[in-house]
């Protein structure tokens, strides 16, 4: 089984690209969705976060907005969260891989926004980066209801520049060229990689 690492900076079209893989029957592990689920369901993690970051839980869940606000004020504390969350995400990913192997899928996708930044590149067989010009990225991101310029810049400061990600990619999909172009690139990638699994 081959593992594609899907990445790209915020607003580059990763979610849409991941959905395209799903539409072709390729299982996709969504790291962000797993974190969101952990923040709602992992009581031990929720308690640990509340101890480290008082008043960040609400009705037994981690309030991501409050936690983000606290982390913005103390960005050096992000490592504390990562030490708690990353091992749990890895465990969920291992279960995902085992299930995909049991179901005999030739290919899976790890949707990991910080693939390079977290050193996860060595855990995949090849890297697919979603890319678009900076102005397209800005337009996409600023349309989000929970986004503002300061938050956008803070997120970008934590991410490797997309042009550098593209240099380290095995496949680049330009997502500003239309959905049909992206879909064709996804389909071609699946066909090629399935032949070599």
Topology:
Blueprint: E1 2-7, H1 14-23, E2 28-30, H2 31-41, H3 43-52, E3 57-58, E4 61-62, H4 64-73, H5 78-102, E5 107-111, E6 126-131, H6 134-142, H7 149-158, H8 162-167, E7 171-174, H9 179-195
Parallel strand pairs: 1-5, 1-6, 2-5, 6-7
Antiparallel strand pairs: 3-4
Q: Supply the CATH class of the largest domain.
A: Alpha Beta
Please tell me the overall pLDDT. 92
Assign an overall shape. globular
In helices, the fraction of residues equals 40-55%
- The span between the termini is 5 Å
Coarse structural class? alpha/beta
Quote the CATH topology of the largest domain: Rossmann fold
CATH superfamily of the largest domain: P-loop containing nucleotide triphosphate hydrolases
User: Tell me about the biggest sheet?
Assistant: 5 strands, parallel
CATH-defined architecture of the largest domain: 3-Layer(aba) Sandwich
Number of helices: 9
Strand segment tally:
7
Q: State the order of secondary-structure elements, H for helix, E for strand.
A: EHEHHEEHHEEHHHEH
Measured by DSSP, the beta-strand proportion falls in 5-15%
